Amino acid sequence: MRHFNKNATLFILALFFTMICFSQTSDSTFVKEAHALLVKRPTAYFEINEKLKVYTRDSLQLQYLINVYHNNEYLQGESYALNAIGIYCRNTSQYDKAIEFHQKALEKATEAGDKELRVNALNMLGVVYRRIDDIRTALDYHQEALALAETIENRTESVNRSIAVSLNSMGNIFLVLEQYDLAVQRFTKSMKIEESVGNKLGLAINYHNIGYVKEAKGDLEGALADYKESLRYNNEIDSDLGRVICNNTIGRIYIKQQKYNEAIEIISSTFEKAKGLRDKFHLSGVYTNLGWAHLELKNYQEAKKYLNEGLALSKEYNLKSAIAESYGRLSVVAEEEGHYKEALEFQKKSYELNEEITNEKNFKYVNDLIVKYDTKKISTQIETLEKENQTVKQTLKRNKSIWITSSIVFAFLAIMIYILYRQRLLNNEKKILTLEQDMLRSQMNPHFVFNSLNSIKQYIISNEQKNAVHYLNKFAKLIRKILDASRVKVVSLSDELETMDLYMSIENIRFSNEINFEVLVDEDIDLDQIKIPSLVLQPFLENALWHGLSSKKGEKNIKLVVKKTKDDFVTISIIDNGIGREAAQKIASEKIVKRKSIGIALTKNRLANFVKDFKNSFSVHFLDLKDQHKKPSGTEVVLTIPLK
């Protein structure tokens, strides 16, 4: 807070000094042009922009324009200058002052009745709020800007660019909320507009954002191609900011591709330019990615240095997403150095911040807002049609009235069908979100966590320090993997098997390590290329443990076998030598307290949603195993998942 007040004081003193200078240099070119515009008082945005855009990077000149136009009641000029100085403040990470100036610009544009200036101010407010991760407010402003811009009949190039900005910013918000299809729709529409007006900066931004979507969905090569295309456009317009952003994200792809030295090289190549930028938002990302690369190379001291630099910068400017990522990386460093308590605290802070940004309320709010926007847009279209129909009715003869009425009814029915269709899509999104939440609750149930920690506690009480540390480390990794998996829809089969191995290690403590758990994978299977829903195997392993083996005497075995029986399928078998399903059901029926397991049903629903766009469907079969005397010798679960 002291830092901000100091900056604000310096800012005001500089403005005051400049006002004195300007009053003494009234014959300067700038002052002449400012007063010439005041004489003509143009109301069209492109005319104002043509004269003043050269001065938009100088805050002192902008403040002079604000004062002159305010004193002479030139509302359009004052709104333009207020908006420009708001952009300057945003680009120097003075977000509170940026919001203040954009709000004043909106007030002046509203007072002047100028839609185009209102759209511009609304968009800029949305950009600032998005920068500080206030998703709801940002989306409100961009949605309002887009709706207002679409009511402008004779759209100029600047109006079209404002529409492109609204679409692009909304796409970025959907990207944060992992609504990837909605994000791509907005980016694609924005890109078409930027192509039509020949705006290379807009094309660079949209290519970069589509690259973000591909990266989030695991298409690293596709993302890399889009980032390089964005870099090409930024080189054409000679944008240092664009080069910093692109090199940083290309470096992040190299990290994910395990090309750590290449990542450090390309990020470091623009490090000095990043430090020289007025906008510190992107510098925090550079620090974080450098720290991540050094972490992967096990250079822990370097990693901590860069991550802490990025964290401090992010905290100073309240960049929640960047803070969450820094805490997440610092958690891994602490864990690797054996500081497990510190690692858990960092991970908890990271999780809480990410939850704040992408919680269920935000998802529901976005979905509700989309419905409201579409409904309002349709209502506006209906009102427009009705006005046109009134004019037509006055000019057409009576025999055309029936045809007009029929057309209106047909349009209304089409609109209603469209609204119902949209509602169905939104309900499906809500169902998917509910399934993922239920899945997380089933993995993180208090009974499992309590018993696991209680088992580890016994090692501590028995002074078995090595076992306690060993299993506590495994438990921490398992919890982290479950939390990480809750934020993604699919994981690689390699990650899933690693998580299941951790889960079985923890559960085996409660069986006095009597369970022999074995994983067998065909040599020709690439586990990293096979994608499945996260934590989908856990309910089957839990059933094998607690229904098949918990009541069995003697040797207890579980095998997890992965085979590729057909080109388009992978088969995962979970085999136990337990008491069999019939005996397990009999024991369950005799219990006083009966529990209804929802794990298998929830897993089937998740699998059904996962393969809805696949060529083939999945299958789950339960086989009762028999020995040579036809007696139950265990259970085999065969899960067949399509690959294409």
Structural class from helices and strands?
A: alpha+beta
So what's the overall shape?
Answer: globular
Helix content: over 70%
SS elements, strand count = 7
Global mean pLDDT: 80
Number of helices, where a helix is a run of at least 4 consecutive DSSP H or I residues: 27
What is the CATH class name of one domain? Alpha Beta
Q: Tell me the name of the CATH homologous superfamily of one domain.
A: Histidine kinase-like ATPase, C-terminal domain
Distance between the termini: 54 Å
Which ranges are low-confidence, i.e. pLDDT below 50, for 5 or more consecutive residues?
1-6, 10-27, 360-365
- Stated plainly, the CATH topology of one domain is called Heat Shock Protein 90
- CATH architecture of one domain, please? 2-Layer Sandwich
Query: Whole-number radius of gyration?
Result: 31 Å
Tell me what portion of residues adopts beta-strand conformation. Answer: 5-15%
The major β-sheet equals:
5 strands, mixed
User: What topology, given as strand order, has the largest sheet?
Assistant: 2-4-5-7-6
